[in-house]
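> call design_seq(struct)
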């Protein structure tokens, strides 16, 4: 609440009513009244407030989950360079990834704030819980988007020219579940931009099927685990009229769709291995990734989603790292 003082002075609180706080001077000589409003406090935010809100925003968007996509971007850069890219390239690719993902996730929280407030699973998120203002998250989103565009400009001309397409894609995703059950594919496309974008950042051109095959792996892998993740909102999505494969087909059928997508991702990974011509270390990464995908689906059943978080967060975090380490090591061992 904001208190608007009618007369300044040394005051102490002596009575509280529903509409006004009545206060008196410290020496008791006179009384003044304060009007109570629900308007937010308008003074300029302090540095500590900005830092606190930034920390809350980073927690809200789960900045640590950049681990899902960043290794794929770094792998795209390593494959493009056929070795280690320059430190400058690695730096700006990393900055671009963090900026793009932060902008996308923060915008998603803004777009879904009313939906999140009605969903018991997401009602505790920072915006619906009142921990962050929409205005602050908007400011964070704009800064993150500008950071992404600046990083793209620091890489090369083609990267900068394609950057608005990437940014538009990741922002559009937030609205797709309102009109199509294929929002999972759109999310896959958003993450799939990373390896091809990193390839272009290093080489300044396409010129090979390798980045497209790697992006196809990422697209199918992401769509598959997003279908799994959407299963936990099956009843809420149907009640709210939101579109998803689980809401459309039911949880049991959605699990089969997820398995099919991950089978496609594994096949694309095999083709990538064959086209790249890398050795047994890369092949070990392919086999290990396939085993993790199978294990992920063994954790989840239509009548038991209790281990969904283990399947989604733990297993998926390992996939991208395993492929980066195995394919990257294979390049250096040649």
């Amino acid at each position: 609440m904001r208190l608007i003082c009618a007369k300044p002075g040394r005051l102490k609180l002596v009575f509280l009513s529903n509409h006004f706080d009545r206060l008196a001077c410290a020496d008791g000589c006179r009384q003044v009244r304060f009007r109570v409003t629900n308007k937010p406090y308008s003074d300029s935010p302090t540095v500590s407030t900005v830092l606190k809100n930034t920390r809350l925003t980073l927690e809200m968007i789960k900045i640590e989950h950049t681990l899902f996509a960043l290794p794929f971007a770094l792998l795209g850069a390593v494959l493009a360079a056929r070795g280690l890219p320059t430190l400058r390239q690695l730096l700006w690719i990393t900055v671009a990834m963090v900026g793009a993902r932060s902008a996308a996730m923060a915008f998603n929280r803004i777009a879904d704030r009313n939906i999140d407030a009605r969903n018991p699973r997401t009602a505790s998120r920072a915006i619906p819980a009142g921990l962050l203002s929409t205005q602050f998250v908007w400011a964070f989103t704009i800064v993150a988007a500008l950071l992404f565009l600046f990083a793209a400009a620091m890489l090369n001309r083609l990267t900068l020219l394609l950057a608005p397409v990437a940014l538009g894609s990741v922002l559009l995703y937030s609205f797709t579940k309102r009109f199509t059950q294929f929002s999972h594919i759109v999310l896959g496309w958003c993450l799939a931009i990373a390896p091809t974008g990193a390839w272009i950042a290093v080489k300044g051109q396409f010129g090979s099927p390798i980045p497209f095959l790697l992006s196809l792996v990422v697209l199918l892998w992401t769509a598959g685990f997003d279908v799994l993740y959407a299963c936990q909102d099956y009843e809420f999505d149907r009640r709210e009229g939101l579109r998803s494969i689980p809401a459309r087909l039911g949880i049991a059928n959605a699990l089969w769709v997820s398995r099919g997508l991950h089978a496609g991702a594994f096949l694309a990974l095999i083709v990538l291995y064959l086209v790249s011509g890398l050795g047994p270390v890369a092949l070990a990464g392919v086999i290990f990734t396939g085993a993790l995908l199978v294990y992920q689906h063994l954790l989840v059943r239509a009548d038991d989603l209790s281990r969904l978080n283990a399947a989604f967060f733990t297993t998926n975090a390992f996939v991208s790292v395993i492929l980066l380490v195995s394919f990257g090591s294979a390049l250096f061992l040649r």
